Fold these 2 entries.
Entry 1:
Amino acid sequence: MFSHFKVLIAMALTVIGLGGCRRSDTVGEEFVAESNRLQLLTTPAGARLLDCGAAKRESFSETQEWHVLTTRSWHEYAEAVSRALQPAYRCSSEGRPTTLCSRSLPGDNLQVELVSEPSASGLVVRVRLEAHPD
């Protein structure tokens, strides 16, 4: 139930123009909704969304990237986000500094890639959502 509340907040913020990422008219509504939901789930307490690129449609995929700044270690961040994405996504650590999470839906395969990008101001994580037809 709590995750449904987060989705509703993300949708409301997008509708009134306070959402973090820019929207493109070339991507589907389902992709936008999932991207908004994942922005919340990949920005745990104590972290903040730094920037977000526009969602794009490329050949047979839809993609969007954003960056999250956190004071957590890579291990703590990746573990917290992996837990937040379960059970919808299955996550596996590809070794430092990458975690891949995947989800299959009727007609689509979704992949979330988390990549550690250490910086002087803390840990920056590049998050990339990609959807492909199955």
Note: The chain has a mean pLDDT of 83.
Entry 2:
Amino acid sequence: MFKKKVLSIVQFEEEERFLCYCPSLDLLQEGKTKRKAKNNLCKAIAAYLSESLDVEMLLALGWTIEEEKGCTPPTFSNMVLNNRVLRNILDSRILSINIYSMMTE
């Protein structure tokens, strides 16, 4: 069902801890450093995709599912429009927000 896909990750700092949020899967992880937060999120994404894949949840998060293409995450611009959590993160953080993309298999 999954081919290689690009997932956006938003990283930000809050109260002396680093957080990483993957809006296309609605997953959030934290760490004492930026690297630890990102590694924790990557592990959570891998676990989600291999253990608890919920097609209904993916559809609710804006994914499209096609027989030939498999599952495709929403674009970042669509997530900004439709994901209230992501909008709140982007609206309320004026310091450092890093947006990464990662490949999944």
Note: The chain has one domain: 5-104.
